[in-house]
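Tokens as discussed.
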């Protein structure tokens, strides 16, 4: 994809899983006693999904439900994998296993069409199992929690969010509903993950005291913004902008917020205050952690972060902490994720990859003002 001198990597050659026929034979052998067989196969970036249609037979369906554990163990042995997801929903049985891994480049999903029809705060997240683009508007989210173990793809998910915001910021179009810049701050206690953006407009914070100061400043900014909006007779930033005024949104990304919250519990107070009130005045939070424990992802944080992205977790308990249900422990890593919006059923998706070349290209364009 090319935007005024910027070319993003779009090369994508799909590698298919070579043992689907063998899997189908093994699955059919297990379900032949019920008179069932595989009716459909869907293959995404790294997930192969086998679908069995169920007849309208209450007795048969109940029999299959009662045999769930036995079927699961038999499937794991037949498919030679301990990580097989098996679930019965509605009129289908679905069996998911890991297939060939395919990297989806950020440039394949962040297209000109996407750029032109979405808002300044819309970000690419990945593809669902049908190849459909999955994205969200942070302004409507309004706060996002991202959690997963090391190697699950958490940082790459955050990179795709940052790249999306920078692209919208740099190449704003008249079709955007909110033609104002987005002020981005990143708290990265490691101090190494986001150095490629150091010459951009992003405010990078890697010092503990500076991180506390930034969160305190955001809380102060929130209060002053609400006072400012009240002076103009507006309840929130959306009403203010609908009257033709401009006010930049602020997005604060905290990568590994466990490092902060476990050292100083006041950080949770800042985060909860912002999560409860800041959306209305245009301040949004994105929290990332590889430690989805009860003392990190507390009840107050969960209650105020309705948009959650779970990547692979080390246990079913961690999955419940993030999503309020199991499933993330069965993910395959490398960007395989479950996305949950409020009380909706989680959507399984494959995250995209922002190459180092793309990060440097985006940062270079912004730094040199070639727009």
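Sequence:
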């Amino acid at each position: 994809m090319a935007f005024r001198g910027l070319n993003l990597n779009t090369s994508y050659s799909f590698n298919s899983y070579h043992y689907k026929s063998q899997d189908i034979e093994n699955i059919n052998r297990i379900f032949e006693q019920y008179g069932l067989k595989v009716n459909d196969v869907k293959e995404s970036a790294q997930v192969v999904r086998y679908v069995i249609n169920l007849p309208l037979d209450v007795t048969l369906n109940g029999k299959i439900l009662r045999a769930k554990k036995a079927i699961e163990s038999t499937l794991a042995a037949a498919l030679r994998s301990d990580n097989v997801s098996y679930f019965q929903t509605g009129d289908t049985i679905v069996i998911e296993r890991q297939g060939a891994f395919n990297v989806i480049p950020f440039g394949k999903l962040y297209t000109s069409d996407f750029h032109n029809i979405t808002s300044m705060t819309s970000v690419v997240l990945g593809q669902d199992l049908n190849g459909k683009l999955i994205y969200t508007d942070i302004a409507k989210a309004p706060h996002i929690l991202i959690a997963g173990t090391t190697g699950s793809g958490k940082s790459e998910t955050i990179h795709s969010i940052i790249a999306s915001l920078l692209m919208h910021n740099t190449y704003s179009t008249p079709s955007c509903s909110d033609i104002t810049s987005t002020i981005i701050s990143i708290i990265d206690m490691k101090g190494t993950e986001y150095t490629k953006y150091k010459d951009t407009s992003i405010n990078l914070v890697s010092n503990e005291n500076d991180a506390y100061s930034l969160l305190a400043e955001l809380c102060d900014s929130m209060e002053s913004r609400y006072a400012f909006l009240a002076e103009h007779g507006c309840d929130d930033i959306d009403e203010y902008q609908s009257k033709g005024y401009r006010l930049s949104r602020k997005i604060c990304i905290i990568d590994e917020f466990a490092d902060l919250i476990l050292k100083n519990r006041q950080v949770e107070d800042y985060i909860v205050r912002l999560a409860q009130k800041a959306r209305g005045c245009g301040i949004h939070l994105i929290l990332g952690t590889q430690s989805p424990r009860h003392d990190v992802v507390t009840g107050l944080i969960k209650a105020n972060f309705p948009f959650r992205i779970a990547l692979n977790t080390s246990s079913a308990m961690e999955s419940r902490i993030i999503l309020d249900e199991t499933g993330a422990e069965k993910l395959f890593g490398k960007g395989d994720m479950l996305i949950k919006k409020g009380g909706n059923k989680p959507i399984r998706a494959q995250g995209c990859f922002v190459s180092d070349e793309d990060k440097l290209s985006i940062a270079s364009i912004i730094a040199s003002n070639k727009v």
